[in-house]
Amino acid sequence: MTTAQLTLRSVTRRFADHVVLDRVDLTARPGERIGLIGDNGAGKSTLLRLIAGELEPDDGEALVVSPGGRSVLPQSVELPDGATVQDAVDLCWRELRALEHELHDAELALGTLATTPDPSPAEAAALDAGLEHYAELRDRYDARDGFGAPARLDAALHELGVGHLGRERTWTSLSGGERSRTALAAILAADAELLLLDEPTNDLDDDAWDWLLGQLRGHRGTVVAVTHDRAFLEAFTQTIWEVDAGSVARYGDGYAGYRAAKAAERERRRLAHEEWAAELARHRSLVESNAGRLDAIPRKLDKAGMGAGQFRARGRDHGAMGRIRNAKERIARLEDHPVAPPPEPLTFVHEFERGAPTSVPLEASSATPDAAMPPLVALLDVRVAAVRVERLELRAGERLLITGPNGVGKTSLLRTIAGEAAPDSGSVRVHGRVGHLRQQAPSTDRRRSLLEAYARGIRTDEASAADRLMGLGLFHGRELGVPVGGLSYGQRRRLELALLVSSPHDVLLLDEPTNHLAPELVDELEQALAGFEGAVVLVTHDRLMRERFAGRRLEVGQEAALTT
């Protein structure tokens, strides 16, 4: 039975003048499975490090009690030059190694005390205390099955595809994926009660992903996992913590509960904005109608008359003016406290035919295109790196998913279709305007602000660009002035996405479009693609996106195989 306790009370953490987390209150139940989500740079890793004890809060209290130990999987394990794979394992096992050293020291102390002839009462008491301490250490070690850890490590390394790596190999000689999988294997083998995992599914193939899910489902303790992986959130988590603007919101009932709650929040925002707008319109109408009544009331009598007549005219005038004054005061209060509408859903615009939308769902992308229209993309006997495509045509409404091992040339093929590189051989023809979302953002002036970069990208003035950008809901107003060089990977990704949806295209080339995006935004991106009338070429490791895709698939390698 797990006994880990995790409570944060009014925790604030700053870096220089930047407040990352602001008065955060959180509690995790023993044995709870928690998914920690949010945009890049929002503070997810900072929160994880606070829970791990690697950081201290500037204000507030972080109470974490885990008798069965805690293990932390960072996004990358940094070691000095010359460090080996075994050094990395020992670092991931530092709690277990420390417990082993304590056991060894306790054994040596007991050996000395036990061999003392004719011990004094103090020595006998010390022996009893030493035996009790050793028993407590041994119980803790046995609770984690410390003696079984090496066998668990070998099994985990094998399942994650890095079992062939020698422990004497230098850490820097491993690829980034090999390092992350080795560290993950070591963390799981240590069998700590509290697991804190930062992007545990990165660099995993489908078999390794399934194995990891099984391991975590069988874990006896509490798990907090930072992840962008929607399939993992959907299959594993019970609770979602979302980090945004320094605060952390808690959602129950797993990822489905989170999505339902966010939809309800959006609907509440819509209704609140409509109520605000209707109230504002009503009071403006009151001002106009009463102003009209005032215009119809004579300011004075045409001829001198009795005072009663003058008094009646002034009385009617006074009532209308009072209503106008009250309405104007209400208008001022409403305008001082506006209720913003929810952001408009993302929409990809087709370049040529912009009539009534004819949605082509991503899940139903095998719909028959108009054969009379020329293909938007045509490849004939194309070779790019290790990719070979004999013949491929895409028309409006068609979707293509390109799959294959890393490094084979999927990104190079997209760049060739985009006209950014020439094929090694063969013919590539593209008809219409191409939008290309790259894995790495194109180079730009890093000193230019986010708003300046967006305005320049859509060729408009900054005031108009600010209105359009804020309407997308991809950024907070305080981010508009941040230099591009100071943006996180996720913010740069959102900038590229904003530019893509702000201009019409016929063909969308999407290279790992879900990288560095929060799960809610990925869901919205999928819906936007479903409504796009042009052609889509997609490269992705996103498990959920691949599972939902029902269009044509191109498996690339030495020979390309096209399936429907």
UniProtKB/TrEMBL annotation:
Top-level taxon of origin: Bacteria
Pfam families associated with the record: ABC_tran
Record keyword Nucleotide-binding present: yes
Cited PROSITE patterns: ABC_TRANSPORTER_1 (PS00211), ABC_TRANSPORTER_2 (PS50893)
Keywords from the named record: ATP-binding, Nucleotide-binding, Repeat
Name of the protein: ABC-F family ATP-binding cassette domain-containing protein
Source organism of this protein record: Agromyces salentinus
ABC transporter domain location: 6-270, 371-564
A molecular-function term among this protein's GO annotations: ATP binding
